Amino acid sequence: MSNKIEKIRAQIDRIDKVIITALAERMSLMPDIGQFKKEHNIPIFQEKREQQIMARLKEAAKEQDLDEKFVEEIFLSIFNEAKRIQQDIINNPD
Length: 94
Description:
Layout: H1 2-27, H2 30-39, H3 47-63, H4 68-91
């Protein structure tokens, strides 16, 4: 039995690494977005864009039999971190 749980845990560990890698890739784009917004005087928070993304993510969650609220909570945290990074770029003098 412990061999089976170890195999399952190894799969979970591998997936966790994939998630972290994807998050790092996503966040690596935030300085570029922040710089663009700074140069073009665009506000960090783009409510319509965030709503569009969230609607798409909730639909994807439903298709994967994931709880929409769970996915929303995760992505609100991701959005908040993205906005924090962008704010750091905008606040940083050239």
